[in-house]
Design brief:
By secondary structure, the chain is α/β, with parallel strands linked by helices. The protein has 20 helices and 20 strands. The two termini are 45 Å apart. The mean pLDDT is 87.
């Protein structure tokens, strides 16, 4: 028997059959893989399949589609009309003040793609210190009278976040409805996940996992599609959003503690009509995970005149939308800039359109600057990011490396002196395609001036990367960077 098997596998029939299968796989891949994918993404998948067909095919079947199950996409479509109905404040937009001529089409684009209008009459307070923003969110929960909506990519009960959980427990005790959403995969990978779930159950909040990967329970989609949003809404009167997760600055990981890594974030506290838009994202995500559509629970208050009010527009994005809403917003703003573009992003792995927009801005003579971390929190992404530095530097983009061991995790950018975007979205292909994100476009010279001061504080803690210095880096670093870049497009 064994002899017969050996004879078959070494025969010309087997060789011919294997060759036919191999060629068929490659031909089918060339036909199927490029459909509705960017050329760079299609090429990366084809490269994986052609080099290692069995491994490449399995990975493509698991991770090749960015589309969520049909029912989840239908829910997104259903709720867009609801979002249009619950947002208030377009009548408070004061377009004659600080409103660039080029901004109106971008506002309309955002409305078309994400359903949210530009609303006026808002206030915003920025928090750059981790403990300060956590204390502000905890205090806001302590003032809640009707409901608290908390949604975080990573939510963990630890010594740093204990006061926040205590505030949630107290809110429940006084009759406030508390709903909590946390991303399943991101939170389960964080130390203390089971302790956190036990705490949520004990204090009596309503909680759900976002995008759970639980095949035995009927929950399945591409496993690396994640809900990356961070937001907190109190009584539809106050909202927080930005880059900060609800966890200790070290993320409680041994390797981070060993290296002394600490995250630096930016959060913003909003009041005004924009709060309803931020809450609408929570309503959307809650509906996706529970089938419960939350009705309007309170109003956003009187339309009183606010000194230094800002206009703002929520731009939701993610695999529930047909198009890359955040990428289109970023590209449009960069191409519209007249004087200055300053970007802060911990993970900078742009697609071709974003790279062209940024380098073209520099070639047009604009002041273009990029703040990133000097230290690696995620090695593959870090090296992929570094592979873009040379083309940016040659175009005239100034790159600032925030000093180690701090991980600059803030996500914001400013255009000229009037417009800024703050939120959870990185400038990378994962945030453009695979993650649910929240971006808030704000209009107002005083808010941009505050962000300029924050950027200056980053600059004081950073070292500028120069082209001559970068070109002399070791060959092994160049190989690592360019190899990592190949994996960035496999989406």
């Amino acid at each position: 028997m064994l002899t017969a098997l050996v004879a078959f596998f070494t025969s010309s029939v087997f060789t011919t059959t294997a060759l036919i299968i191999d060629i068929s796989i490659r031909v089918i891949a060339v036909v199927v893989v490029p459909q509705n994918r960017k050329p760079q993404t299609a090429m990366a998948w084809l490269l994986a399949i052609f080099i290692l067909p069995p491994v490449g095919i399995v990975l493509f079947l698991l991770f090749g589609s960015t589309r969520l199950p049909r029912r989840r996409r239908e829910k997104q479509e259903e709720i867009n009309a609801y979002i249009l109905d619950i947002t208030e404040g377009p009548d408070r937009v004061e377009k004659e003040i600080d409103f660039p001529d080029w901004l109106e089409p971008i506002v309309e684009q955002n409305r078309t793609l994400g359903s949210m209008p530009l609303v006026g009459g808002n206030t915003a307070k920025l928090f750059t210190e981790y403990a300060e923003s956590l204390a502000a969110m905890t205090a806001a929960v302590g003032q809640a009278k009707r409901f608290v909506h908390a949604e975080f990519y990573i939510l963990s009960f630890d010594h740093t976040t204990e006061p926040f959980f205590t505030a949630l427990e107290a809110a429940v005790a006084r009759g406030v409805t508390v709903r909590v959403l946390l991303d399943h995969v991101a939170s389960v990978r964080s130390p203390g996940y089971h302790r956190t779930i036990r705490k949520l159950r004990r204090i009596g909040v309503h909680w759900r996992l976002m995008l759970p990967v639980q095949p035995l329970r009927g929950h399945w989609q591409r496993p690396d599609l994640r809900n990356h949003r961070k937001l907190l809404v109190i009584d539809r009167l106050v909202a927080f959003t930005g880059s900060q997760n609800m966890i200790d600055r070290s993320y409680n990981k041994k390797r981070n503690l060993r290296r002394g890594l600490r995250w630096k974030d930016l959060m913003v506290r909003f009041e005004g009509p924009i709060v309803a838009g931020i809450n609408a994202l929570f309503v959307t995500d809650w509906y996706s995970e529970t089938d419960e559509l939350l009705m309007r629970e309170t109003d956003s208050g009187p339309a009183e005149k606010i000194v230094d009010a800002i206009d703002a527009q929520v731009v939701p994005s993610g695999p529930g939308f047909e198009l890359e809403n955040n990428l289109r917003l970023f590209d449009s703003l960069v191409y519209s800039a007249q004087h200055r573009v300053i970007i802060t992003s911990p993970y900078f792995v742009p697609d071709d359109s974003m790279l062209y927009a940024i380098t073209n801005a520099a070639y047009r003579g604009l002041d273009v600057q990029l703040f990133v971390s000097a230290v690696a929190a995620q090695p593959v992404v870090f090296h992929a990011q570094r592979s873009y530095y040379e083309v940016l530097l040659r175009a005239g983009v100034r790159i600032w490396l925030y000093k180690s061991p701090t991980v600059l995790h803030a996500k914001h950018f400013t255009i000229d002196e009037e417009v800024a975007v703050i939120g959870s979205s990185n400038m990378d292909m994962r945030s453009f395609t695979l993650n649910y994100e929240i971006s808030v476009m704000v209009l107002g010279r005083h808010i941009v001036a505050q962000l300029r001061e924050i950027e200056e504080s980053y600059r004081a803690e950073s070292t500028e990367l120069l082209l001559d210095e970068w070109l002399t880096r070791p060959l092994r670093s160049k190989v690592l960077d360019n190899t990592a870049r190949l994996t960035a497009a496999v989406q």
